[in-house]
Structure prediction request, 423 residues.
Amino acid sequence: MRQITAQMVEQMDQNDELASFKKEFYTKDDSIYLDGNSLGLLSKRAEQSLLDVLNDWKEHGIDGWMGGKYPWFTLSEKLAEKLSLLVGAKEKEVIVTGSTTVNLHQMVATFFEPQEGRTKILADELTFPSDIYGLQSQLKLKGLNPDTDLIQVGSKNGLTLDEQDIIDKMTEDVALILLPSVLYRSGQLLDIERLTREAHKRNIPIGFDLCHSIGAIPHELSNWGVDFAFWCNYKYVNAGPGGVGGLYVNTKHFTKTPGLSGWFGSKKETQFDMDHHFDAENSAGGYQIGTPHMLSTAPLIGSLSIFEEAKIDRIRTKSLKLTSLLMDLLNQEIENEFTIVNPLDDTRRGGHVALMHNDAARICKALKQNGIVPDFRAPNIIRLAPVALYNSFQDVFEAVKILSKIMKNREYEKFENKREVIA
Ligand SMILES: *Cc1c(COP(=O)(O)O)cnc(C)c1O
Prediction:
């Protein structure tokens, strides 16, 4: 392969249609942030919208629900219209609400309807722990046994899944399937369309956790017929730590009674009748539970306006170029150190690059000391996420240069190979 030079990388930045968004984010001159897959950076627009909502509280008190700049009573629905563009759904199929784990509970409580001989939930052994804890407790709530009723599809290499293995487990005793869109460690993007088609051939409802794809990858949830999905908005969507998440329910299920009902799922017109008969909104909004967390919703206003301009297809195109460049440079500059464990194929790769190394924990510490912010996933994975909205091609070039120096000088050896409490 042709040697990649600094000039070539400079040219990539000059040709970058999204380059202007970088200055809208609080990046630092003396460090390169490659951890947007864990917590996206603050943008000036998100900061402003948070201040606007605070100001409405200051100025209007209770009347902020119906007045002010962004009336709170309908803000979750208004933002869902913009968020629906990121998941490829109809406006009413999406709502801004809850968090990943809470939304998982709501969706599983709603869609898991075990019957005689059909009591199992199908998931995978590589998924995020919270998703598994949620499924275990939902099984217990229905009087079932997680040891026998939760099936976790295995991985041949401990890093990626084979769709055929998942499909082979879609047996008659499965009542619900829950899978991630992108695996949080290896960054593998599953074939959502194929998995949905195969699940539906067997009449099994299927949902996806989009935490690691939302904001990085376009989706077509409606066209693919996915039954439900949920996600957080604090990773690639940059809505702030603990920012309010989202969920999607396919239109054909709007008549399904929420498994966990609450008054914010009511029809807006009748919510304040205070009647004890629950009349759910005929949309994804019907699956809301309680009063929305306005101060943790507010940054989404600014953040989603950036996505509206940048467009998710362009974000995906740039993201793939960034991760390709990162892998090419790693191969060029650093020999025989790391194993790249994310899929190399563009159609199977999420938004980050995953490197395996026995000293991963302390290499991450050395990177941080050198102004590069990666993240570490036990036991031996370094994740590097160059984010299309605020990382440049130059950032990737610099980061690999520093990593190469750390490896050559074995600078990581002065740290203990142990993770921090938060990694
Ligand atoms: C980030 C992440 C979570 C976190 O869930 P919270 O409820 O927001 O804490 C859950 N699942 C996956 C797959 C994630 O990537």
Remarks:
- The chain has a mean pLDDT of 97.
- The pocket of pyridoxal-5'-phosphate is lined by residues 99-101, 128, 130-131, 180, 184, 209, 211-212, 232 (CB under 6 Å).
- The domain at 49-309 is CATH 3.40.640.10 (Aspartate Aminotransferase; domain 2).
